[in-house]
Structure prediction request, 303 residues.
Amino acid sequence: MKKLVIAAGTGFLGNILIDHFKNKVETIVILTRGGNKSIENINYIHWDAKTLNTWKSELNDADVLINMTGKSVDCRYHQKNKDLILSSRIASTAILGKAISECKNPPKTWLNSSTATIYRHSMNQEMDETSGEIGTGFSVNVATNWEHAFFSQQTPKTRKVALRTSIVLGKNGGALQPILNLVKTGFGGKQGKGDQKFSWIHETDFARSLEFIIKNPTIEGPINIVSPTPSDNSSFMKTLRTAVGIPFGIPLPKPLLEIGAGIIKTETELILKSRNVIPKKLQENNFQFRYADLTNTITDLTS
Prediction:
């Protein structure tokens, strides 16, 4: 692969992809709200994620575009934040589609972020790309509108894949570190009832799965980027306690979580929704996970 473009590639997931691809690709272009600069084979190009500008030329002759743009959902869902969460995803997707349509030689593949939260709260039924049931509520509305904006773009020469990504567990960011801090301070018991399903993926498999999709041109449409073994909240917290040598953890029932979420300005949905998602398309295409086991994953990420 000669040229990879990552839109909004300076965050947690973007840095995972940079580390994974930097020695496999001749040139990586990062579209960023920051200034222009170059570090080795990585070029950072300014864009505002909503208007066409000189950045659009970077898409020409690119092998792959990965769009990871969107305001973090780790915030309070008041109207201003709701509007920003939705508009940041729709606007960036639409402007990238327009830029591709104006390319003489457009990217061969466009991977666009989505979310495994698109599926309904499910305790028993596993949600795959074929039979999974779309849920309701604000987060699902964001996901469905995001995917509609993506797949409605007219890009006949560019294959499109929506990445329905679960919680990515990594060493240097994301959800794992704040939860580990909670465990280390003694509040590492179950959250809510503790039986809600927890779909996850190791950061290495996150990057590897995207490379796998890029190399397999028959894969298109929505695809679940998750490990094949959903856990549950209670087991997840116990695994974390074992990994860091904390013998006990105070459970946090829903009323306490509501108070805590208000204090740290987030929403309990991120913890209490049961995400029971499996990677049917990846498995049907024989993708081999390196970290399919939660205990091995946590041991690797905390060692």
About this structure: The longest helix spans residues 79-101. The two ends are 33 Å apart (CA to CA).
